Amino acid sequence: TETAGESAPDLLARIEALAIENKQIHEKDCFNLNPATNVMNPRAEALLASGIGTRPSLGYPGDKYEMGLEAIEEIEVIAAELAAEVFGARFAEIRVPSGAMANLFAFMATCKPGDTIIAPPASVGGHVTHHGAGCAGLYGLRTVPAPVSADDYSIDIKALADLVEREQPKLITLGASLNLFEHPVRAVREIADSVGATLMFDAAHQCGIIAGKAWSDPLAEGAHLMTMSTYKSLGGPAGGLIVTNDAELAKRLDQIAFPGMTANFDAAKSAALAVSLLDWRVHGRAYAQKMIEVSKALAAALKARGVPVFETPRGMTDSHQFAVLAAGYGGGQAASKTLRKAGFLACGIGLPVAEVQGDLNGLRIGTPELVRWGVDIGDIPALADLIAEGLQANDPGAVAARTRAMRAGFDRVHYVV
Ligand code: PLP
């Protein structure tokens, strides 16, 4: 390998330089339009590096296996209580390494290998974890794709009722990697009840606008449990979280977390998560509203500049995300590579339109990080000019210097305690 011949001091210097380079890309050179990432509260970031993450955490608060963990177990309790508070839930499971693992925990708590589940397909942003190649398939579940309503960028309720009657699934999932309009949770719950199925809501992306009360609470609408990532719109450390109001499910999730799938877990992450959840307690409503406001304004501004924003009879978006039809740019990943040269970070997504050979047919854009750095409605015309030019120019690199100059005006993290 390349590193085998490299001295330890050289490698150390290289790794440290790469970390600095990454910060330069994300915080100086580029605007991040990718809704699957965010910048953390600097005090949460400091806690992540505070050294408590390497300490043991095995066992329950008040009954830990190793000694000297009084402080760590209090952090664990605070984080779980704040998670339940922010999501208005009775139970929160924080010992979850990622959004993908949150889904696996949820599958294990609700299904047995061999069971059938119904999940949104990729054409409406359905995530691989719900399907054969992901943890659903690895756990032995058989996934039947849910029928799609292109106009809602969601599930076709009428067709779902027929499919559920035929397939008798154990679990139905809602929620995707792009969520433009609220999903029909109540209607899907009714359908789930007709066959005794559980309804899981994957809020990996929209947990922020749910926490900020800009979108309805899926648990209140009828979902039995809700999984999420903690580092996307939620702006916390990389990890997962599950909330539920169902005591029986909470008990099973607890057993899956420990002693099932985790022994020791990262207490530094729990501390960082607790601080990020405090951000939501204090600033959540304002942050969520602003993410949506800026998303709608940016979608409209791009459309006005000739960028083909994906539109349905319901509009372009009600969320912190929207999408661009990417066929004219060679596909979603090709468009993302072009934008990267112009100083914008984004990625492709599936849309319910004609496929693009060898690429995704959509480009996904979101506002969690823009807003966290303080981008507001007044900044949208200048930002949209740069994005549109970056997408359309023959030489997107020529836009990068102007993007970098604008980016320099946003150097403080907002909506943090
Ligand atoms: N569910 C959805 C809908 C996602 O978009 C993602 C994104 O990666 C995940 C689950 C997995 O989350 P994580 O990246 O935290 O494992």
TrEMBL record:
Q: Which cofactor does it need?
A: pyridoxal 5'-phosphate
Lineage of the species this protein comes from: Bacteria, Pseudomonadati, Pseudomonadota, Alphaproteobacteria, Rhodobacterales
PANTHER family per record: SERINE HYDROXYMETHYLTRANSFERASE, SERINE HYDROXYMETHYLTRANSFERASE 1
- Which branch of life, at top level? Bacteria
Q: Which GO terms describe its molecular function?
A: glycine hydroxymethyltransferase activity; pyridoxal phosphate binding
UniProt-listed Pfam families: SHMT
Q: Would you kindly state one Gene Ontology biological process term found in this protein's UniProt entry?
A: glycine biosynthetic process from serine
UniProt keywords (A-Z) are: Pyridoxal phosphate
Q: Which residues form the Serine hydroxymethyltransferase-like domain?
A: 21-386
Q: What is this protein called?
A: Serine hydroxymethyltransferase
SUPFAM superfamilies, alphabetically? PLP-dependent transferases
Using the record's annotations, give every residue carrying the modification N6-(pyridoxal phosphate)lysine. Answer: 232
**InterPro entries the record matches:** PyrdxlP-dep_Trfase (IPR015424), PyrdxlP-dep_Trfase_major (IPR015421), PyrdxlP-dep_Trfase_small (IPR015422), Ser_HO-MeTrfase (IPR001085), Ser_HO-MeTrfase-like (IPR049943), SHMT-like_dom (IPR039429)
Tell me a GO cellular component: cytoplasm
